[in-house]
Amino acid sequence: MERIAIVGASLAGLRCAESLRREGFTGALTIVGAEEHLPYDRPPLSKEFLTAEFEAERLALRAAPYEDLKADLILGQRAQSLNLEARSITLASGGEVDFDGLVIATGAAPRSLAIADGISGVMTLRTLDDAARLKAAIEERKRICVIGAGFIGSEVAATARGLGLNVTVLEAGDQPMLRGVGPIIGETLAELHRSNGVDLRTGVEIESIEQIGEEVRVNIAGEASVDCDLVLLAVGAAPVTQWLESSGLTLDDGVVCDATLLAAPGVVCAGDVARWPNPLFGGESMRVEHWTNAVEQGMHAAKRLLSDDESAPEFSTVPFVWSEQYGIKIQAAGRFSGEDRMEVVHSGTDDARLVAIFERHGGISGVIGFSEPRRVMQYRRLIGAGTPFDEALGASL
Amino acid sequence: MKISVDFDLCKSNAVCMASAPEIFEVRDDGYLYILQEEPDETHRQAVEEAASLCPTRAITVEG
């Protein structure tokens, strides 16, 4: 393999490039990125970047000089299509990148709502440019309405409260974040917002959004509307696969890969865009939009691309995500839903600390913790080891 | 190999503890403790994984 192209210049793509070099790949390496910026870290965009604690320079993902990577970086150019037979990518500019091996790491983009189309006061948050716009708006304005109480929505709500804004959060589901985790966790998450002064409304149906001069009005079915200065639309993200539609690769809410992250001969995937059967969870088809997953898959994809088929190891992981809101560290690992049996295994004297574990098919399948990083990681190891639930319950960690 | 942690960056997510529990430990006080600052080579893979997966990139491995 002489030429490898990586499409996607964020966390998964960069870590993949670094791993390719570490694994001894000396051929030509091209990295294509849709954004103008060098790879940067996204988690602080909803937190430290908005509060101006971190400048953009501090978000740089690579510590070492880029010259050391010996890669051709093509930034600010979107990939338009992939021709697998010709082993070639066409860029939006019309340029072409030829390859022997391909890494698909195009990530995900915020979902939009048709009722928000054309409303100037509605923003989304994914990129550094998005974050700079949101930051400027937050500095000037007093009232923000966040639609969607997932990770991004909840974090921005918490950050905006910390900056003294008036915050309303509208959520279609019955609970904020980590949907369907049952009443105990759901209520804890809701209480976290409310006790910090957020007007959290769950189970709402948004009928329309209007721009009235400088103001935005969000109309809700059967309830008073919300008047605000800006709206953050945070209703999840969809994998960026439009450029692959005519490629012949199998697309199904992501690029479908085998258990080794291979999508086609000489084509691997990593990060938010990859859908693969996770051997640790009985081959459950997963697509994971978390930070650590992007790193792990980026590194794995590099090894997979360079290895012979017979020797290729599968990619197994216990998905892990963390969030920080109102000074509370919320961490979750594995799989869980409101249908699963849940047991609270630890709760602190102040109710800000909590650990709950989940059961599936007799084993521990998931863990959620509030300001309990040590225990979350210990239970995460038990999940990875396939520990029976009763044993995990009795582990007294 | 010598491990150092920038405690101004560390946010005690404990991801390092999942990769290398013999080297890193986040305790109940919420702080990270390095159990071995100069571990032997048998720990290299785990330590390098921990450094790669640190969400705040607070871990440096030298040597």
Automatic annotation (TrEMBL), chain A:
<dbReference type="InterPro" id="IPR050446">
    <property type="entry name" value="FAD-oxidoreductase/Apoptosis"/>
</dbReference>
<dbReference type="GO" id="GO:0016651">
    <property type="term" value="F:oxidoreductase activity, acting on NAD(P)H"/>
</dbReference>
<dbReference type="GO" id="GO:0005737">
    <property type="term" value="C:cytoplasm"/>
</dbReference>
<dbReference type="Pfam" id="PF14759">
    <property type="entry name" value="Reductase_C"/>
</dbReference>
<protein>
    <submittedName>
        <fullName>Unannotated protein</fullName>
    </submittedName>
</protein>
<feature type="domain" description="Reductase C-terminal">
    <location>
        <begin position="321"/>
        <end position="392"/>
    </location>
</feature>
<dbReference type="InterPro" id="IPR016156">
    <property type="entry name" value="FAD/NAD-linked_Rdtase_dimer_sf"/>
</dbReference>
<dbReference type="InterPro" id="IPR023753">
    <property type="entry name" value="FAD/NAD-binding_dom"/>
</dbReference>
<keyword id="KW-0285">Flavoprotein</keyword>
<keyword id="KW-0560">Oxidoreductase</keyword>
<dbReference type="InterPro" id="IPR028202">
    <property type="entry name" value="Reductase_C"/>
</dbReference>
<dbReference type="Pfam" id="PF07992">
    <property type="entry name" value="Pyr_redox_2"/>
</dbReference>
<feature type="domain" description="FAD/NAD(P)-binding">
    <location>
        <begin position="3"/>
        <end position="298"/>
    </location>
</feature>
<keyword id="KW-0274">FAD</keyword>
<dbReference type="InterPro" id="IPR036188">
    <property type="entry name" value="FAD/NAD-bd_sf"/>
</dbReference>
From TrEMBL, chain B:
<dbReference type="InterPro" id="IPR051269">
    <property type="entry name" value="Fe-S_cluster_ET"/>
</dbReference>
<keyword id="KW-0249">Electron transport</keyword>
<protein>
    <submittedName>
        <fullName>Unannotated protein</fullName>
    </submittedName>
</protein>
<keyword id="KW-0411">Iron-sulfur</keyword>
<keyword id="KW-0813">Transport</keyword>
<dbReference type="GO" id="GO:0009055">
    <property type="term" value="F:electron transfer activity"/>
</dbReference>
<dbReference type="Pfam" id="PF13370">
    <property type="entry name" value="Fer4_13"/>
</dbReference>
<dbReference type="InterPro" id="IPR001080">
    <property type="entry name" value="3Fe4S_ferredoxin"/>
</dbReference>
<keyword id="KW-0479">Metal-binding</keyword>
<keyword id="KW-0408">Iron</keyword>
<dbReference type="GO" id="GO:0005506">
    <property type="term" value="F:iron ion binding"/>
</dbReference>
<dbReference type="GO" id="GO:0051536">
    <property type="term" value="F:iron-sulfur cluster binding"/>
</dbReference>
